[in-house]
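Postdoc handover notes: sequence design on the structure in folder B. Input tokens:
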């Protein structure tokens, strides 16, 4: 069995529960607060399915598309807003860094993740109380460890976007416990790390009926990222955290890079050998479920029948072209073509056709004049049939092995082990980009190369902002693309007004 890990977001809050063996079809309880619900193993499975269902709020088409990417991606220098996106003031505020604590997208992001925390806490507390005769002990342990992973993940999303957060360490059953103060970043990181450590006891893989469950590899990958981030945030302990990051990342085993880069994002190669953490989708509507999305409409430009919400920036295109046409294909870095549709010989009958036509057939004005308008290929369907469908079922890789390799390279380089970092970078360049080995051997040259690789490897995967902040480059990056940015105000989002108004332990 291949050692993959997955996130299941295919579990909707349903009106009943099921004991079906297939994890993707387990339905969650309608009332997880019921004291009578947690009776046996099927209830435990339904409870953990509900906890998974909140990941990225993928169970809601509009929340997923219109909260996740505006909140996470619009801050990045490699992204521009599309034409339709400018019709939504809350999105424009995010892009222009003029948002306030009343921004509804920011508030939704906050509450969506705390709902996931609540569901995870229910599982941690309630599954432990199921009588021994009603649940296998190993199943109980696994489900609880999955809940620890999910609780860490939800807190991870929060601590990456807010300077201080509320630690959700227990299931809230009364109004008085809802009012809790913000915790320090150190305390929050400690909490996340402890949960991830517990989750490292998870299995390395599952059978095909359990796609979506967190595994040992996922726990170690995010644990490594947590330590890497803290190494920069707490410079007095940088050496210690770098060592811990490397140790964790070295435990991410059983994965390999996928040669066909675009296949990981167009629905044709779900849960690939490279995928460490992946949101699951399905076109199946069995039992009334709807796990499809309109993500391709949100991501797609108007020329490709999309809603024109998000575009690659000039900065991103310049970075793709930076090294020139030195790939073994005789073209630019192959990730350019696998991520972006743009006017080029490749997409004009040079073997790269855009849904069966030349690029210039799609991108032309009413007079028939072709124009260049770079558009994301990533997360667009693989074929014309998919493009024409109003719904799609494209999985979203949240953590890939290439990220682990590049994080390891960064750790090693910061430790002064630059010679050991370079082969990891070159591995990603060769497999995904068809690019020759990097030039330069100094620590600074490797730092620059890591930034280059991460910029072109992860567009729309929303790592760029966290990279920039980790490196202390947010202001310079924004200034370089002509965007106004105040590090004191905009490095993190403000605590939502809805939280402040409902929580008397927060005064700001």
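Designed sequence:
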């Amino acid at each position: 069995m291949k050692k993959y890990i997955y996130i299941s977001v295919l579990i909707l809050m349903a009106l009943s529960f099921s004991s079906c063996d297939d994890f993707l079809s387990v339905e969650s309880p309608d009332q997880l607060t019921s004291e009578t619900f947690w009776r046996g193993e099927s209830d435990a499975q339904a409870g953990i399915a509900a906890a998974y269902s909140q990941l990225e709020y993928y169970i809601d088409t509009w929340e997923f598309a219109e909260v996740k990417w505006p909140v996470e991606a619009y801050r990045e220098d490699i992204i521009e807003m599309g034409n339709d996106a400018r019709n939504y003031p809350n999105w424009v505020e995010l892009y222009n860094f003029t948002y306030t604590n009343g921004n509804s997208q920011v508030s939704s992001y906050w509450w969506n993740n705390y709902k996931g925390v609540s569901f995870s806490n229910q599982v941690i507390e309630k599954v432990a109380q199921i009588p021994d005769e009603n649940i296998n002990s190993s199943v109980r342990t696994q489900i609880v460890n999955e809940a620890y992973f999910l609780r860490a993940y939800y807190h991870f999303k929060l601590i990456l976007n807010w300077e201080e957060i509320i630690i959700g360490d227990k299931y809230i059953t009364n109004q008085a416990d809802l009012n809790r103060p913000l915790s320090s970043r150190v305390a929050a990181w400690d909490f996340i790390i402890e949960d991830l450590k517990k989750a490292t006891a998870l299995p390395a893989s599952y059978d095909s009926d359990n796609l979506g469950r967190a595994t040992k590899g996922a726990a170690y990958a995010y644990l490594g990222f947590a330590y890497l981030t803290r190494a920069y945030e707490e410079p007095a302990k940088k050496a210690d955290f770098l060592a811990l990051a490397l140790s964790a990342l070295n435990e991410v085993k059983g994965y390999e890079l996928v040669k066909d880069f675009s296949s990981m994002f167009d629905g044709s190669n779900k849960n690939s050998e490279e995928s460490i953490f992946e949101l699951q989708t399905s076109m199946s509507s069995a039992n009334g479920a709807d796990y499809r999305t309109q993500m391709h409409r949100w991501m797609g430009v108007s020329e490709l029948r999309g809603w024109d919400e998000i575009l690659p920036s000039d900065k991103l295109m310049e970075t793709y072209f930076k090294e020139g046409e030195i790939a073994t294909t005789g073209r630019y870095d192959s990730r350019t073509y696998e991520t972006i549709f743009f006017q080029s010989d490749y997409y004009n009958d040079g073997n790269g056709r855009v849904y069966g036509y030349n690029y210039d057939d799609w991108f032309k004005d009413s007079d028939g004049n072709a124009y260049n308008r770079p558009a994301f290929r990533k997360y667009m369907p693989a074929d014309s049939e998919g493009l024409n469908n109003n719904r799609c079922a494209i999985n979203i890789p949240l953590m890939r092995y290439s990220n682990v390799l590049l994080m390891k390279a960064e750790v090693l380089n910061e430790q002064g082990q630059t010679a050991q970092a370079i082969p990891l970078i070159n591995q990603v360049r060769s497999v995904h980009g068809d690019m020759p080995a990097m030039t330069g051997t100094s620590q600074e040259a490797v730092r620059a190369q890591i930034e280059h690789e991460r910029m072109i490897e992860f567009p729309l995967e929303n790592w760029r902002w966290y990279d920039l902040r980790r490196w202390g480059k947010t202001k310079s990056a924004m200034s370089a693309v002509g965007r106004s940015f105040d590090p004191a105000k905009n490095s993190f989002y403000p605590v939502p007004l809805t939280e402040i108004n409902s929580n008397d332990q927060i005064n700001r």
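Context for whoever picks this up: Residues 1-32 have pLDDT under 50 and may be disordered. Don't rerun without checking with the PI first.
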